[in-house]
Amino acid sequence: MKDMWRKLPLRKKVVVLLTLLCIGLTIGYLPEPYPHVLTKEEIKEAEAVSRSQTEVLAHNVSLTDQAGHSVSIQSLYNKKPVFLYFWMSWSDMAAKELPVLDEMYREQGREVYFVVVCLDRGEAARQQIESAWPYDMPLYFASMETAGIYNVYEVPQWFMIGRGGTILDKHAGSLDRKQLAYSLARSLK
């Protein structure tokens, strides 16, 4: 073996030594498992913490039902999911959407509270809306202050609130029936 080594040209000796040095360094300095790489359990724990810190809870506001009774939104979403829809009588878009909402209410009104909130001001306007209300779904009234608490600055606008008060979805503008159906189904999971 010594004879073979002596007969090798200097270049080959250097290559062999460098190769052995590289192998030795690789074996001697194998990296430890990365401390910043999370296990599956750690990822699940982090997702749960992240989810709880980013959830937006619905504000507890007081609404007035058709009978004039005060209803706390929290008393509703603590029992089952709530579909909260803000509208005003002058909105053509809302006028087109209310029949669709009433149909969905008849289909899913047992599993989800449909809270259709009119923001019209004045007792006379409210009485007129109430007397002409042709739908099965309940009608509620609220002040513009309540709309401000929910950051409703255009109508119609709706929120899907899960059981317990987490806002699952929010949408302003025209109602997309497929999106609403998806949101309702998601709230029931």
UniProtKB/TrEMBL annotation:
Superkingdom, taxonomy of origin: Bacteria
Segments forming domain Thioredoxin: 52-189
Coiled-coil portions: none
Pfam families: AhpC-TSA (PF00578)
Protein name: TlpA family protein disulfide reductase
Species annotation: Megasphaera hexanoica
Species classification: Bacteria, Bacillati, Bacillota, Negativicutes, Veillonellales
